[in-house]
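Lecture 7 notes. Example A: sequence first, then its structure tokens.
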Amino acid sequence: MSFSGELDKEREQILHLIRHASSSWAAAMRSHKLAPPDAGFAARLQELSAAASIEQQAWERAHGVGLAWRPVPGAENSAPPYELRPGTGRRGPEELWRRFDAAVSALNTAIAGSSAKMVSEAFGTVAEVTADLAHAVRAEDETALAAQDFVRVRAQA
């Protein structure tokens, strides 16, 4: 196979990865849009982190072979689903939410441009902070359940 043929095959694989990443990201965002109040919040955050990580990897590879991101007009003004917005009773450490908000803003700026490298880096930051949030929210949930169990056992005694 020629160098050109190998490059075409690699680009085809990367485009397949990008389609998969885009689908995963869309599904993760839909799960937040359709979320019941609080149920499974940590799991949804973890799913979003995983989807952002796949996007990061796909666009890192795309950048490596010279593919560009197609700008999304108006992306700078996009807002995440309601349960991820400030002032909606988001659970978890406020500092992590400030980092999340900054990461979302950076992602919106990146996807309004054409740099696959910037898009990759921005998705990587979203993946990292969302994983941290998922861990923190899961820990809060476990603590709350343990406290409820303790109260229930004491009430029965």
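Example B, a different protein, same format:
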Amino acid sequence: MSAMIKRSAFCTFKQVAELTCLHIEHPKFCAEICLQGAQLTQFKHKQHGDLLWLSPDANYQRGASVRGGIPICWPWFGALARNPSAVQAGLPSQQAHGFAREFDWTLDDVNESAHGVRLTLSLGHDENTLKIWPHEFKLVCQLELGDDITIALTSHNLSDTNMAIAQALHTYFPTPNIHETRVLGAGNGQYVDALDDWQLKKQLAGIGFKQEVDRIYLGNNQYQILTPSKQFSLTCNSHSSVVWNPWIKKSKRLSGFPSDGYKNMLCIESANVLSDYLQLAPGESQTLRMQLSCVS
């Protein structure tokens, strides 16, 4: 891995507090990826600026996701008890959002060109993961960074039994003003409101932010995020997604998050959750893909 980076024109390893990160300085962008969790924490395009939000109070600590960027939630999403019974599979109560974001991944490949950088990282089962989750697996994350951000997360079932998973690419977007930010693309769709007893509701227009929002949208929604400074496009191949902003009270309780951080961020998570969870047979694989672009 070190030899691979020594030959790189754009990539260097950098220690940030407790975490080893890959720093990329490309003619088109600069970026940072933590080996823990294969988490893209920063991406700043030379023309469009920041495409991701990173908390100014983010902690780079072992065993905890960095607050911002695109954490990977796998093999369950949110509280384990809120996942389908097949995903819970008799597991004892576990930390929210699975364990993939807590372990160091292996950097398998770096491919560079004038157009961008493609990285491949992987995580496999070992004695530590088997204590948490009784499946043999390989998880591969391929990031293509250039004018856009493209992520492909592939789950391989290497065990001899079915493997049920829920997952999400938990993307944090920046905005100068959440009050003047809207999300289009879910109109006339349905969502589950996690803040109102998980009731199923209908989306009648664009999504605005005047209070805490925690919604699971059903269907293959392709989003446009309109902020006062930029317009983003987010596409994915899944049939569920999550829109989230913690608002005032929850912001005060979140780790690595300023009390007024809700004003300058929102999350849209490309996901396979609730009835959209995946059931992989032995030897089967599945890929969750997302693409994030700044269109203005």
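Note on Example B: The radius of gyration is 18 Å. Helices lie at 2-6, 85-88, 127-132, 247-251.
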